């Protein structure tokens, strides 16, 4: 039920948001008995929304736009400036089509094959290591595969440093103090490095002919102009960074396999449909992006509430994936639920909602699923390992979330 939102000035709630980013919107919405409410975040009046109906509203491009919507702290760490996330209208559709052109079966298979090769190589290295920090290792192997896939030259010796820079840009988004500053620095460093590469691709088009780097370097907006070098670098980062970020979901998948030995057995024994359901449930269950931000494009009224032009609005992604009206016993990890899921665009939104081509929904969603299936296959069928005692807690204030130990394994053996 959508009741009229709470109105009027309230105290700034930035601190409660930072302390519990995944539950902030959902908890308040339940307490207020309304799927939409207004608050003040970073001193700005902000509307928060949850539920599938709100998601459908949020992804209507006539009502909400992205230009200037993302908080500055996200622009200078996670997203970079002037990338596809901040575009609207025709220019967004065209730029989005470029990203979607990478996500056909062939492109995805190529990356999955490269990643598979690196999984095999790493497993044989892990056999010789006393302990393996899975999150770190998988981040690196995905970085290596993403480098090869995109044509970004990445000698093996540079992989740990480049992975660390990419991770810092992701971590900085939700961090305070040092974590935030490291994120800003990593973003500047990453953009400079990739700007150099875009220049190189423009000077040597044949060398980058068939690569993602070449495609982005050559890309022209509907006006006909090449992207400014810095913007092209941001878009290349927009492919590399989230591919490395899939390591978080892989870590969550490893946690879920550990917590549910019966799922581990079922997958190890070759139940293919279950692999897909398991991966989907990992994406639903574990916290990654708490919410997304947009701005009201033109004034409108919804359920009796007036949305003035320019009002910042947050959509509760994590809350929708845990909404008891949409998911039976949402706080239980039950992959079987996806055997019956009807593929709705607005009820399962770990990577955004709506249409991939028309709106801002993550273009990398299918790729993420492919890479996660590969990882789950590798973890269950290509290797055995032990999970020693460790601190797997995830502090509620930490977004994006990650277990304290980063998931340690030992006694790794191939096969
Ligand atoms: C957008 C999540 C993987 C590229 C998004 C959005 C979310 C998201 C929540 C915003 C949706 C919105 O604004 O409405 C994730 C998660 C991933 C992931 C949790 C798992 C690691 C990927 C991959 C790629 C990618 C693998 C590319 C290789 C992008 C791009 C956008 C985006 C370019 C901006 C799209 C737009 O604004 O139109 N992602 N993503 N993501 N993602 Fe992902």
Automatic annotation (TrEMBL):
InterPro entries: Cyt_P450, Cyt_P450_E_grp-I, Cyt_P450_sf. Transmembrane segments: none annotated. The keyword Oxidoreductase applies. Its cofactor is heme. This is Cytochrome P450. Belongs to the cytochrome P450 family. Signal peptide: none annotated. CDD domains: CYP152 (cd11067). The keyword Translocase does not apply. Pfam families: p450. Keywords: Heme, Iron, Metal-binding, Monooxygenase, Oxidoreductase.
